[in-house]
Amino acid sequence: MTDLISMVVAKYNYWIYITLMMIGLYAMIAKNNLVKKIVGMNIFQTAIILFYVSIGVKKGATIPILEHGHGPNAHHVVHAVDYINPLPHVLMLTAIVVGVATLGVALALAIRIYNNYNTLEEDEILAQVREK
Amino acid sequence: MSEQYPALLVIVPLLSALVVSVAGWVNKRWCFPIAVAALSVSAWSSVGLLFRVLNEGVIVYKLGGWSPPMGIAYYIDYLNGLVLPVVSIVALLNLISSKRTVEQQFPDKTGPFYTLYVLMVTGLLGIVVTGDAFNLYVLLEIASLTGYGLLAMGEERAPLATLNYLYMGTIGACFYLLGIGYLYIVTGSLNMVDIARLLPPLYQSKAVLAAFIICMVGVWLKMAFFPLHAWLPNAYTFANSASSSLIAPLVTKVMVYVMIRLMLTIFTPKFVFNTLAVHDAVVWLAVIAIAMGAVLALKERNLKKMLTYIVVAEVGYMVGGAWLGNRAGLTGAVLHIVNDALMTLCVFLVVGNIVYKIKGYAFGDLKGLFAKMPFTMGAFVIGALSIIGVPPTCGFFSKWYLILGAIQAHQYGFMVALLFSSLINVVLFFRVFEIGFYEPFSDHEGHEHHPAVMAEAPLTMLVPLYVVAISLILVGLYTGDIVNHIVQFVIPKGFM
Amino acid sequence: MKIIGLIITVVTGALLIYAAADFPAWSDPASPASTYLSPHFIEKTMEETSVPNIVTAVLADYRGFDTMFETTVIFSAGVVCFFLLRISRREEEEPETRYYRHVLTGVTIQLKEGYKMPPSADFERIDAVWTPPDLIIKTGCRILIPFVQLFALYVIAHGHHSPGGGFQGGVILGASVILLAISHDLRTAVRRMSEKLIGILCAVGVFIYAGTGALCLLLKQNFLDYSALAGVLHVDPITARSHGILIVEIGVGIAVLATMIWIYNNISSAGRYRQGL
User: Contact partners of C by the rule of 3+ C-beta pairs under 8 A?
Assistant: First the structure.
């Protein structure tokens, strides 16, 4: 029991990311409204960002910007344990941008669909398609 | 200059896409020539790269001058050396052929269309050439986003079909990204070769197992492997013909390449076939994919949609072949990437020509088409024979290797599925031939027995079509050389 | 669909939870991710690129190729939104009835088709569906916008030493113009930055990035190897890397600025600039 609790506590970031991701996935599959699906998609992508950023965390370390990098007080002996892992942050900057871009395209498509059918409910659109 | 080919391959189309975009605002007539020039440079570089690989073996190109695993590197070996020319040449031929269609369909938006087109090709080439797992994700998103834009411009139902594709594609790409994250958390690396080096002690780890499953599901979503195919038929059918004839031949095939790359380079066959040992189950999935693709195609009364279901079935061929886990099966799968890209291009170009002239692609519109567009339909016959698998077209040879692999692996279900789908393809295409050949042409007022006037597509559309059709036969005739000089080096050591 | 969704979600979640059991503990300094590549980045960035902000150095130099395509992703999103939504200028007709408001009194007049308003500073054009907000909001935003833009320039320029860089600065710059569009109307914003200018700026921004890389190629180094710029910039190769990063960050800033506005313009007005929000 104590093992289980310590495992749950030691990795709580990962449990949160899984929960968020499943909320997003469920919304994308089960929701009827196209914009709600887009919202679900965003939650889904954000969960992955949380996962990656969690990888980068290091106990007792600070943000990866060196103090006194230049100038008279510059000291070049840097210890890796003092700074958190910069790579996941770099990767997630990319993922954020991809998320924004996908969101923009998805909204543009939703507007086109709304212009065609005057609704964003998927079942109503499909009913209109079947009628034609 | 030849040592810079790997960079030129991707950079020239990228820079030209930006120039095309600006030209779209200044003078629209410059867009097309710039795009053609850019893709020609890409095609030239990719062929040059293939010859360099043949002479020198694996090429590593360090971007930014940083050695991998610190920086990003390109690895060009026999596998992507073979796929790169296919991607760039297919894209170039389709670009030339689509000039008229684009001017007909969006006269005001040729600038953005060519920008997206060239960017999409950049993305696809980048996916194939890169040696960095995360870089692949970024390029995948470029190819997908531009693909959504291209596909959504079409009939009334195109935006909805594309939005569904966008949901599925985003889940697929995110799963891939998550899988790479799992690999990163256990190995600390993003470089494919480096991950493969660090993985063997971790083969029993649950995280690696999950990474493999998630990556595979993500890639299968993107390539429309049954039962994850639902987005594909509508998205490809309702799109404009210039886009669908770029995307249908290339996207699924590039994703199959990514799957093979994941299996062979990142996770290595030892993990996939020995530690995991689920390949029988996947081959059975492929059997179902082929069978369902064929049956669903049989149901359609619409040429373009029928072809999209054939694409779904062909994905089953390649996935099954790759998962057979023997030399012949993998040879067939790799060869089929090349052949299927060319065959699909051929038949979709035909559809493009028909749509350009007749403005429809339902079976009813095809009446009397052999008299009306004899050259287009001639190429269609060659493409159809290749998809059915009649020698000496190339489709026969890859199917031959696949069946050989199925027999060697004792996967008779897969063999039966291949034969069954070939049989269905015979029915599918001869039905189309029958309508096109025997049923008289009727115009839209319904005057039957109207003497068919020849109204062939313009030369700029016919020449690329015939280049593809002839290449189908040439690739078929030179299959032996391709296998002996290129494909056999793709197969890792220890494969039977 | 709900049941299928639930099943898929539960199965996927179970797989992920199962796999998470084998992860190294959260924030463990001895995890593979923290001990394999990152120590090199943390300890060597300063001597190899002369940039104290390690994230910036990794973003724009070690993995600069990713970032170039990241900029391309946002550029393609802008082009896609334009391609899908924009209604061509020829087809976009002027609305039949136009509304004008007397600035001082707030009296609104309606002009039927065919009638034109003589140019006058006393009246301003308003949309039928959207009444511009009041004086306080307009004036407040007009005062705010220059400071927002100044801060954005700081964020771009100071990306080497503090959190920030091209993306963040570009987004803030774009937001300042979007703020103008929200507080006034789309026509005002488009008058300040025309559609053509935005479209060209997007491409120019990405071109600065990719062009810098291509320049390194012409100077006989690999693509994006900024140390090749040492001869052009008259500095040592390591400082050249630092300067190269600044150049590409400026390119990123321009591209993101223009694309954000472009996406906003097209989505908010559904492609009809003359009647948009």
Answer: A, B
